[in-house]
Amino acid sequence: MDRNSIIGLLLIGAVLITFSIWNAPSKEEQARQQQVRDSIAAVEKAKKPVVAPVQVNNEASAIASTTAAADSTLSIDSLKNVEMANRYGLFAAAATGQEEFSYLENDDIKVKFTNKGGRVYAVELKKYKTYNGKPLVLFESDSTRFNFAFFSQNKNINTSDFHFTKHKESAGTIVYRLYAGDSYQEHTYKLPKSGFKMDFNIAFSGMEKVIAPNLNYVALDWQQNIYKKEKSQHAEANNSTVYFKYPDEQAEYLSETSDDEKDLTTRVQWVSFKQQYFNTTLIAKNGFDKPTKLAVVHYQDFDSLAKFMKAGITIPFSHKPYESFDMSFYFGPNHYQTLKSYELGMEKLVPLGWGIFGWVNKFLVIPIFNFLNNFNLNYGIIILILTIVIKLMLLPLTYKAYISTAKMKVLKPEMEEIQAKHKDDPMKSQQELMSMYRKAGVNPLGGCLPMLLQMPILIAMFRFFPASIELRQESFLWADDLSTYDSILNLPFNIPFYGDHVSLFTILMTVSTIIYTHMNMQLTGQNAQMKWVMYLMPIMFLGIFNNYSAGLSYYYFLANVISFGQQYMFKLAVNEDAIHAKIQENKKKPQTKSKFQQKLEQMAKDRGIKPPKK
Questions:
Q1: Does residue 150 contact residue 219 with C-beta atoms inside 8 Å?
Q2: Which among 119, 300, 441, 570 is most buried, taking Cβ atoms within 10 Å?
Q3: Domain assignment of residue 7, yes or no
Q4: pTM of this structure
């Protein structure tokens, strides 16, 4: 053999040795392969027929039977080991075990944990009850799923399948670990001595060797069934949905009244499963990675279920030897001041209305309400005082509207005369009416504008009372809960557009509204057709408000009663004869045409109508 052949063989041998070393299995893989070989050997051994010895005596027979049973048990256990290894790979050891529970508790909440998935199992709000007096549990294990998913060794791994090891437990802290050999995923929970917020950290140690190298994220699958906690399931369902917030933007939400879903393609700061008066919110310190998939399903045929909510959240993973992701949970009430104190925009979970209606609630209603709440008064009294304060603030506008309406009443005979004179020419009639208004110094919209300015407050109250957790389970007179409907009679049947009960506050509101409408009709002298429309609206409110918050109906009833008193005082203070004399004096004064009047006259000229004589 020549020198070149020897060198070639040596090079080939070196390559083979290097290749074998390079592809040699790790210690963990060798142990796992050995476990599989031992299991297979045990199974093969179990397949061999057990030959019983000659029955010399009963003791020998018993020994043979015991040996066969042991071999049979060994075969079953070995098969299970093989199945677990094939199914879960490095996580096989955590696939079996006993579920164990632990607790963290402070002044406000009690959190129950399970080692199965290393997650929150249930949360109880200690200072609240359900509508029927039971402990208020936000969710329990059978109503929620909280699972991290990723690929490892071509296997789909779900952490909810495994029993975590409780690594540490101390005052206010619990740490769970899911081991995969020397690597682990760690969940750390820290609960302060008070409050509704709990810190949650997920850490990965050595998991870059376990999680598939082409994955740059871990998927979080979070689901929750919302069980009924309030008296009115309809109201609870229609006020529950998924909220979310992008960084530096206001919170948004999915539909409250129908099934909805949304794919978010940018980073998200928090996701909240919001119920009517409570919420469970998951907050990322530096935002969740994109994408985030949200969905809400409206249950129709379940008495105990209100909604199903789902969030698919992306946790970034960079394949570093150690990395962590900081989050926190909020388990608590939809209380405006509490949520605002976290400075995360979570106060948007309290639906105060959009635009000017929200401003009225934030800067007027809520400050007054909170101030009165400091005196520990009954909430029925607080609503009464709140109503009086708001009506006093609106008194100048109300008085101005009354004076304007009184002026129109004084001018009514002249108005009817003009309308009768030009009944066949509406444009001519309108032109002369405007001329008369200008000479008399009367604004025909003067009575409407002040009332329109009061509308934001009325609508703001419509949003405030059903959303105010302060009224929840607070009783007043016959109403046992001002946050939901009051009932003096439960009907054995359901009336369409009305309901299966009779709300006394709604009846009082409706009757007072009809009386108030009648008083205004006498003052303004509306035509017969308009009267029917004005009287029809309170009747419609009877059906609409029968299922609404008793506090809202009570507020509108009080507002009507106070308006009666104001109208009576105005009637005593205002002299209609003096108003009429003032109008006649105004007619004698020289008048300048407003731009609106000039425009009306130009429109008339364009149609060939001559302006009225002065």
A1: yes
A2: 119
A3: no
A4: 0.76
